[in-house]
Amino acid sequence: MSISRFILVRHGETAGNKDGLFYGSTDLPLTEHGHRQAAAVADYLHDIHIDTILISELQRARQTAEYIRAPENHHYHCDPRLNEMHFGEWEMQHYREIAARFPADWETWMNDWLHAAPTGG
């Protein structure tokens, strides 16, 4: 019996990460630093056998997967269920702006983000 492993890799940096924005479903590309991060992850995973690569439909995930699949030309499969949530009125806003505009919702989110929803999200 073989043992299955699930390796979760987060995409490399985007301008949204760098700028402190909430950008869930906004389709941002990797920054130069994000490309270097993706290459580093691919290097780290180089000696690990990979059967399948599943990614969201967003380009940041696709760009990251391109580095991981390259050595053995793995195929990857896009699954919309892996797409990031939409942050509603918070989408592409800095956290300080969100806290100022939606203080009650922000406090709820900060106290229990697993059970809270962004305003309009």
From TrEMBL:
Pfam families: His_Phos_1. Substrate binds at residues 10-17, 60. Gene3D superfamilies: Phosphoglycerate mutase-like. SUPFAM superfamilies: Phosphoglycerate mutase-like. The active site is at 11 (tele-phosphohistidine intermediate), 84 (proton donor/acceptor). One of its GO terms (cellular component) is cytosol. Keywords: Hydrolase. It comes from the Bacteria. InterPro entries: His_Pase_superF_clade-1, His_PPase_superfam, PG/BPGM_mutase_AS, Phosphoglycerate_Mutase. One of its GO terms (biological process) is negative regulation of glycolytic process. PROSITE patterns: PG_MUTASE. The keyword S-adenosyl-L-methionine does not apply. GO terms for molecular function: fructose-2,6-bisphosphate 2-phosphatase activity. This is Alpha-ribazole phosphatase. It comes from Morganella morganii (Proteus morganii).
